[in-house]
Each structure stands twice: as structure tokens, then as C-alpha cells.
Amino acid sequence: MSDADVQGTQDGIHRVLKQSFGFDELRPGQLEVIEDVLAGKPVISVMPTGAGKSLCYQLPGTLLAEDGGVSLVVSPLIALMKDQVDSLRNRGIRTAALTSASSPAEQTAMLEGIRNSEFDIVYVAPERFRSHRFMSALRDVRSSLALLAIDEAHCISEWGHDFRPAYRLLGQAIIDLAPRRLLAVTATATPQVRVDIANQLGMQDPILHVRGFSRPGLTFAVEHCGGPKDKGKIIIKKITERNGGSALVYAATRKNAERYATELAAADVRARAYHAGLDDQHRDAIQDEFMNGDVDVIVATNAFGMGVDKTDVRLVIHADLTRSIEAYYQEAGRGGRDGKPATCVMLFNHGDVRLQEFLIDASFPKAELLRALWKLLRERPGLGLHQLPDYELPGSPHESTLSSAVRILGRHGYLLDEGGALRAVQPKEIGGDYPEFVPEASERRADVERDKLQTMIEYSYHAACRHGFVLDYFGEERGDEVHRCEACDNCLGFGESKELTNSQQEQAESLLRVVAEIDGRFGRKRIAGIANGSDDDDRFYGMASRGSLSGTNQKDILDLLRALESSALLEQSRGEYPTIKLTRTGKKIAQGKATLDPELLRLIPSASRSSRKTRKSAAPSGNADPAATERLRQLRTALAKEHSVPSYVIFSNRTLEELAIVRPTSLDGLGEVHGIGPSRVEKYGDDIIAALADDRGRA
After folding, report:
1. CA 615, CA 496: separation in Å to the nearest integer?
2. pTM for this structure?
């Protein structure tokens, strides 16, 4: 493109931006994507929730329509399509959505409208590409097809967190239609997923734009806690202490969403539960109440949030562990959409891992079960789902696993549900266009999900910068300053990670030597058993490092192993049975060619993962001075408003109480109080000491 062409394109972009969309400026990263799309380059754009990825195809589509071009947008959700179509129509842009919700007459009219070039932008679901009528209409306007934009493009990859087989239809559609411009956009795609997107879509040398994963306005924290009862108390406390705005609470199951919503309502919080078990009308009404400010808190499963653009969300709580970093970051990213600070807290109990493992097993049945179930229903047609557990099937599957297996077989044309009576069939027996059925694909998908879950567990135990962890995961380059982001619990010093003692540093070095000797063959618990000598397997008696941590309990060794992983000295393999091995740096330390840097090695001790009741017992004895307590409370409120963060980010109620009991007179003394780390001493120390001194002066 010549300099004149570039300038001309930029003029058109800014004209349409102002005239059609009412914006004066583009967000960072949008201009580069839009220019490359208009230049006809194949583009993959990765932008997180709230970064404005939809404009990257809407604006080019509007500009290309001036020369008679039609843009096709593939999107997976009807609700999301509807919101975008309504918004574009209100801006005077000729837009349509061809979905399963459209009546046959409406679909026919829209197909004719496509043929007659009556639309500038057309939204479709990926399943639509199975329709011969639809593909015929597109072939009729192939010469006018200026842009094919694929939203939520990670859905095309088995390595993505939300794989949808229908997206695999797009590769052949691109070959048939040969659109002049091709854009794939997603909010969550790792480097591995990006490569798969390009391969599946047949992109040759695509231009990659990765932008916006750094969200310094979001403060990330993980709080290790007890079970649902403990979590409920924490949620109520954080919701009631937040500094204005609305809040989102995400739960792993419908039952948990209902439970926490009920508990919040009992605490006089305007909260509603939202999940897929509610009918569409009910869900729409709850969403409208939230958007209009009639409800302050939504407690939801992952059924909520896609396409919801509420700008004043100040707090996002994940009451349960999510299954992937992609899902967590997408949901947490709904906070602070207005550019103002927001806090994102995950409540973690290791029991959450078992729940997610159960959900993975239930969602992705093994190939042998799929085959055995089909055979059973071929031999005994008419059985109901509730009867299947009475028959001997591989793995003695739970009813939820059987339900998933029935759904998978039905989706691929191998099973019919006739009023609750199940019958095994072949696709050719019933006709229709079904996706290819590969029973092993379900197992592969389960491995991917376990892999992602393990990464989420690593995030939960991560003792270093959480923003850095996320940026590394998504492959976004980051500067050295992210080592101390000042926007996560670990970097701010109010997290539960601790510096290692000299003894723990020596134990960590011994652990590296244990891992070196077993050469990546075993997992954490076996390593811990070898290290403290409790594993009596004959194979390990000759190991020089066996028993090198004799007398150290397993929990403390597991803590050290996680700390070494967080510091990139150890790494875990992927799959259902992960093993631990040394990284290149860890190997150098184990061989004595390098030394352990205590500044980079921190751990979350087992005591931090005990119940809050247990932790509270460590508080100093004595009575808090009422006047000092009030002065500190006022100071905390003022500092929270000044820094636009929740009060507990300044210091917790427990810290406030200890300050009022101990009443330190120096910064060194202040640093000894629970919850006051070096960064807090540096940021707030003088103000706290002054408040306490002022109180003493009044006494």
C-alpha cells in the first residue's frame, strides 16, 4: 500500500468511526488490525474482553459496504448476535442475523436479501454452513463478499477452552467462497491455539495482533479458604465492603449460584442468581435488572456475561475454581470496563479441583463408553436415560456422564431420542447432514481440559506476579516492570505468599536434587515421599537424595514444590498423570552451577490454606483501643477512596484490629503486624504511624 493509500484508508477509517459509531478515537491496537484487514491481509487478532475487538470487523464492514461489499460475521451465540445487530441497525448500518431463532419465512427473506445485496453486514452461526441453501446464496454473491470475520475463533481449535465442532466447517467454506479479506478474532487464544486457528482456516502467513492482555486497572488476588460455608461469609464481607459499583460472583454449579445469591439476599444485598436452568424470559429479566441498576450483584454460572457490557463492575469474585485461565480472564475482565480500578478475587479450596475433575469426566466420556453405549442401545432399543445405570458399562459411569454420551451420539446422528426412549442408529439410516464422529475426540478433549485445569491450579498457588503469569500464558510480551505489577496480592504484599527461611531454601535445593535424580518420571506426591523417606518402594532405596528432607511432612514439601514451579525452576508435564521435571535453570542449581535466588522464591504455606477460624487464633492478645480503631477505619476509608480500591486492599479488618492493639510507633514495628508487608509500609506506613500518633496525642 502506498503512502497515499495508507493516508486515504486512515481518513476513511476515522470518518466512519465518527459518523457511524460516534467515536473520536480508536482504542490501542484497533487501528493496526483494521488497516491490515482493509489491505487484504489474513489477520488473527487476540484482544481480551473489553478491548473492542468487535469494532475491528464492524468498522471495516461498514467502510467496505460503501463500494458494494458484503461482510459475513460468524458468531456462536444468538444473544450476542442480537445485541450487535440491534446496535448496528440503530447506527443506520444495514445488518441482519441468520439464526435458528428465525422462522422459515424470515430465513428465506434474509437469503434473498443476501442475494440482492440488501445488507452490509450479515451475522451467522457456524452451523449455518451445513445448509446447502445458505451456501448457494453465498456463492451467488461471492464476487461481493468483501470480508469474512470469525468471532470467538478459538472455538475452531481442540486446544481452545470452548471447542465447537461446527467451526470446523469454516475451512471448506473459505475454500469455496474465497473471501477477499479474512479476519479471525478472539479474546482468549494461547500461542498453540493461534497456530491451530491459522491451520484450520487455511491462512497463509497471517498477520498476528496480540494486544491488551495487560489490565493494570484490575487487582488480582487469590484467597485460600474453607468450604461453601466459609466462602459464603467471605463473599458477603467483600460485597458489603466494596467501594460502590456493581459486582459479579461466579460459581461452578447452579446449586452454588443459588446458595450464594440466597445468602447475599439474606444480608440485605440486592442479588440475583443467573444460570442455564432458568428459562430465557427469566434470564433476560435478571440481566435487564442488573444493567438498569435495580440489582447490584449477579451470582452466576458461566452462562452469564458474554456480550454484557456493564461498565461499573468494581468487584468480580470467583467463588469456585474455573477450569481454565481463558475462562477466568474472560470473566474477570468484565470488571473495570469503564477504565476505573476493579478487584478480581478467586476463592480457592483444593476440593474445587475434584469438582472440576468430575465435571470434565462427566462432559467428555471415553471412546469405549461411547461405543459400548451405542451397542447396548442397538441391542436394546427403547431404554430411557434413567435405566442406563442398571447396565454394565465401561467405568461404571455416573448418570451425568451417560447424559453427555447420549448427547454426543445424538449430535453425530448415531442416536435418536423418541420421547425419552433411546434408539441407536446410523446417520445414513435417518438422513441429514451430521458432523464426522470420532469417538476418541472426546478423550482428547478431556486431556486438553485437564491440562488447562492444571494451569489454573498453578495460578492459584502462584507466589509471584499474577499479571505476569497471565501475560506469559497468552504469550504477550511484557516489560521487566511487570515483575512488580503493584496490581496483585503477591506484588502488593497482602497475599499469602511468604519469603523462604534459610532452612527452607536449603530444603528447596535438596528437592531440586531429588527431582534431578528421578529424571521427570514421577509426580509431586511420589517426589515428596522420596524426599522425606516415607515412600518405601524398593526402587528408591539406592537413591543418594532419598530421605534428604527426613522429618519434613508431605504438605510442607508440596508447598516447596509449588514454590519452585512458580519460580520456573520446575515444570509439570501435561496429561491425566502429570510428572515433575527440572527446567534449564533448575537443572543448573541442582548441579551446583548456579545458586538459588531467594528474592524470586516464595511459597504459600499450608497454614494459609487452613480455615479462617484457625488463622484468626494467631492474633495478638489484648483489647483494641476504640479510639485508635476508629482513627484507623477513617484512614483506611480515605486511602481506599484516594487509590480507588476496596478498603480491604489497604488493610483487612484483622490487620486494623492488630494495629489498634499493638499500636506500633515505627515503620519497623509496623512491618511486624499481620498483613503489613514491605509495599504497604512504603505506601501507607507514614499515614498509619501518624494516625496512631495523633490518637496517642488525644489520649
Report:
1. 12
2. 0.69
